[in-house]
Amino acid sequence: xxxxxxxxxxxxxxxxxxxxxxxxxxxxxxxxxxxxxxxxxxxxxxxxxxxxxxxxxxxxxxxxxxxxxxxxxxxxxxxxxxxxxxxxxxxxxxxxxxxxxxxxxxxxxxxxxxxxxxxxxxxxxxxxxxxxxxxxxxxxxxxxxxxxxxxxxxxxxxxxxxxxxxxxxxxxxxxxxxxxxxxxxxxxxxxxxxxxxxxxxxxxxxxxxxxxxxxxxxxxxxxxxxxxxxxxxxxxxxxxxxxxxxxxxxxxxxxxxxxxxxxxxxx
Length: 267
Fold this sequence. Notes:
Layout lengths: L2 E14 L3 E8 L4 E6 L16 E7 L8 E8 L9 H17 L7 H14 L5 H18 L5 E5 L8 E4 L5 E4 H4 L7 E2 L11 H21 L8 H13 L24
């Protein structure tokens, strides 16, 4: 009978039968995993099974491929420290939805676990919104890399230079200088200052960053499976636009710059 114990983050919980719940977790050493928690709908378990909580789990099943049963103990009630802040709660919901959408079940994802736990702790802290949003954008970039689409933001994909980077190709995810972009600039994504672009107010960089990662998440994580963007992630982007209403930020088109040396993807 296979069984193991591990540290985990609660990702989601849904009712099953009269009193049980099927719980999705991201574990430290066993990847994204599901299990049946008996009594999961009880008053005792409901506060523990909130997304974002850090828990200790014990999982067992008759066979490896079975759903299995899961015993859960609270380690850190992160969700309770986030629930009263709409923006932080939306970011937590987005994080959980992206983990569920990007990671194959039961495949080890130690780096994602470590980064996600650090991000949740930041959400549960008193850190200023723009600062933790910048960290969240970096978390999304890391998740894209794990999902097989790493952004190439350290040098221009057209000229190869490492300075004066201002844009990102919506096709390849590579950085582009203003000179290389030329007339195609309006169709490119803006590279935030905290990722190597020209320095702007952090709030403006956050808007540009959430647009940039949102484009690639929609295309490379959900789009390749013909699925719409996760609702929680779209809510986060919409809410960021409301939180930081900078009128001078223009609308960013996300069409591919077809003549930009074909992004030098094969060169």
